[in-house]
Amino acid sequence: MRSRWYVLAVAACVLSLAFAGSASAKEIYKFGGGPAGGTFQFMAGGICTYGPVKDIKEFKVLAGASAGSVENLRSVNSGKYAMGVVYSGHVYMGRNGQMKNDPTKYEDVLAVSYFYGAPAQLVVRADSGIKSCMDLVGKKVGVGNAGSGAFANCEMFFTALGIWDKIERNAMGYNDAATAFGNNQLDAFWLFVGYPSGAVIMAAQTNDIALVDLAADADRVGFVDKNPYFSPVTIPANTYKGVTTPTPSFQDSALWVANAKVPEDVVYTLLAKIYTDEGLAHMREVKKTAKSMSVADGIRGVVTPLHPGAIKFWKEKGILK
Predict the structure, then answer these.
(1) Of residues 149 and 261, which shows the higher confidence score?
(2) Residues 6+ apart with CB under 8 A from 109
(3) Are residues 130 and 160 in the same domain?
(4) Which residues are CB-neighbours of 155 under 8 A, at least 6 positions away?
């Protein structure tokens, strides 16, 4: 019941964007989430639907639909969204003009806080014989939807491995990929998301699945060493039905970011509401992945400048000196 209520609440929050201008005199701040089945949408929606945030008199925060990290980076930088969820690596690359085929410097995207670590996950059938990414050559692979962090990171990783142009790429969201996988339309699908992922759980209901050891492939080409915003991680055994051994991988940090022009007091007020015992409990109830959120780890994984409102908040908490 909780999940159904939450999805309906987020949907209502998103739909209300269309009527925000006439429904209230409050300043509206749009928060970019992500695609269906991804953790981004739950994090943005969790903030939007938290009671004390909804009760703020001076302004209103509404969750907005998004393809994911890369789209959020661009939308927050342009001011289309005031805030959003973006991977630390994309904030870093965007700020330094290092995005693939995009020399733009996205310098108006400032970090607010750490949400969670998002590991790369590659789902295959247990009897497929696929033990490495190199076994994907000639296979049909879900690579995330265009504009998402999953797609961008898949392209980056598979290009480093030399297989990006050797697979049959299918750009789609996680839930669509899980459905296609269940219908034998995909041989594998890639995710870059906190675990456990609802899409992987869905896939495990219709097939015996396995996760590919991505750390072994990453180590072979020095992928993590060359990209310092990634770090090693292991997905624990039994996270998903039938996957009874730990799976080594690598992860990025999903960050809450804000446009540089968002007022300091807006960001500070939101942090003060969410980073309480009650606020963090709400976020964990919305999505278990939020268990990684804490005051102590508030700026973990941040390698780019912080928003002034975040600087004020984290200094008060003793996290910034």
Answers:
(1) 261
(2) 73, 76, 77, 86, 91, 94, 95, 257, 258, 259, 260, 304
(3) yes
(4) 100, 143, 164
Domain count, the chain: 2
Residue 82 lies in a domain: yes
Report whether pLDDT(22) > 60.
no
Question: What values do phi and psi take at 303, rounded to 5?
Answer: -125, 15
Answer yes or no: do 245 and 260 share one domain: no
Distance between CA 314 and CA 321 in Å, rounded?
A: 9
Same domain, 269 and 247: no
228-233 contacts, C-beta under 8 A, 24 or more apart: 228/303, 229/87, 229/88, 229/89, 229/92, 229/253, 229/301, 229/303, 230/89, 231/117, 233/117, 233/119
Instruction: Tell me the pTM.
Output: 0.78
At 279-292, the pLDDT tens digits run 999 999 999 889 99
pLDDT tens by residue, 190-248:
999 888 899 999 999 999 999 999 999 999 999 999 987 899 999 999 999 999 999 99
- Please give the full DSSP string across 1-24, using - where no structure is assigned: -HHHHHHHHHHHHHHGGGGHHHH-
Q: Please give the Cα distance from 278 to 160 (Å, whole number).
A: 43
| C-alpha atoms less than 13 angstroms from C-alpha of 306 in its C-beta half-sphere | 22
